[in-house]
């Protein structure tokens, strides 16, 4: 939530993952509020592909490899279903 405190360990893990991920999913944020915006920028600078799911356009849309404008609570379950189908043998 906006203005909510981020636990130090959670923040450190998110920072690490933003530096080491191959794909970085930025979901449900305007990408102008830090630390979320900074993590996406860091992931991009480290070579990750960026996927954005947000209701409104963000300043990072032009740098993203994929942008889906929609409600995260509707879009993310659809993405998970598709991923599960692609992992199924046969």
The CATH first-level class comes to: Alpha Beta
Main β sheet profile: 3 strands, parallel
- Rounded mean pLDDT is 89
* Total helical elements: 3
**CATH level 3 topology:** Rossmann fold
Structural class: alpha/beta
Number of β-strand runs = 3
The spatial strand order of the largest sheet comes to 1-2-3
CATH architecture assignment name: 3-Layer(aba) Sandwich
Order of helices and strands, N to C? HEHEEH
In percent, how helical is the residue content?
Answer: 40-55%
Instruction: List unreliable stretches of 5+ residues.
Output: none
**Rg, Å, rounded:** 14 Å
Looking at the structure, what is the overall shape?
globular
The CATH superfamily bears the name TPP-binding domain
Gap from first CA to last CA: 41 Å
How much of the sequence lies in strands comes to 15-25%
Number of separate structural domains: 1
Task: Produce the secondary structure layout.
Elements: H1 8-20, E1 23-27, H2 36-45, E2 49-54, E3 66-69, H3 72-87
Parallel strand pairs: 1-2, 2-3
Helix pairs in contact: 1-2
Summarize the structure.
This protein has 90 residues and is an alpha/beta fold.
How would you characterize this protein structure?
It contains three helices and three strands, in the order αβαββα. It has a three-stranded parallel β-sheet, with helices on both faces. 16% of the residues are buried. Helix 1 (8-20) runs parallel beside helix 2. The protein has one domain (8-87): Rossmann fold. The chain is an alpha/beta fold and 90 residues long.
């Amino acid at each position: 939530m906006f203005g909510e405190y981020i636990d130090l360990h959670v923040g450190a893990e998110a920072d690490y993952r933003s530096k080491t991920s191959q794909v970085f999913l930025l979901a449900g944020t305007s990408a102008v509020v830090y630390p979320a915006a900074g993590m996406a920028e860091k992931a991009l600078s480290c070579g990750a592909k960026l996927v954005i799911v947000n209701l409104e356009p963000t300043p990072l849309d032009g740098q993203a490899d994929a942008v889906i404008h929609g409600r995260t609570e509707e879009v993310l379950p659809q993405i998970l279903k598709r991923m599960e189908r692609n992992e199924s043998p046969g």
